[in-house]
Design brief:
alpha/beta, Rossmann fold, four-stranded antiparallel beta sheet, 8 helices, 10 strands
Length: 236
Amino acid sequence: MIRISDLHKKFGSNQVLSGLNLTIDNGGIVAILGPNGSGKTTLIKSILGMVVPNKGSIEINQKSIKNDWNYRLDINYLPQIANFPGNLKVMELIKMIKDLRNKACDETELIKTFGLEPFLDKKLSNLSGGTKQKVNILICFMSDSPLIILDEPTTGLDPSALIKLKELILREKTAGKTILITTHIMQFVEEISDSVVYLLEGKIYFQGSIAQLLQKTQQDNVEHAVAALIPEINHA
């Protein structure tokens, strides 16, 4: 379980998170949505310990993450932009990450799933954006962790790779993992997510299941439902 209490974060004069409270139970797929600047990335980076809040607390499985970096060994993270060292070959990167994580990893199936065999001896700087994203996915999923955080995971993927990504995420859900996803692709949210957290100006405007979101907005798909939240917010 992730429990976030009264979280505040300010960058200069910009208040990014404003007393955010959020509880996420173990197991299932949660989509964290909101317009640009709503605080999604700051929230995720706070959970990862990459951003230190000005106020508030974050607990994972009833233990505070403050001053305890070991909890991150149980998190798999896919960043929105994978800034891998361009001079490394794909296989060299895989080996380096395995050494750094110091936990059981199995990349073989993922290499085959995403068709990366021809690229293992190529330098990362020579790969296309879509292939780099496949490597990013491989690095994220090759180790077994109970919490998976995916920041815009669909970026640059062709339709075949996108289908394989969805199958991979759903398989991890079936294994009891907790998966947090940020994305602007509402069809992707509708197809795989169990629940939605909608942020606006650093606060939670909506939290609930896909069915509850559709019922609240009287819409028949997530894309229209999220669009319908905007005028509702403006008149709140």
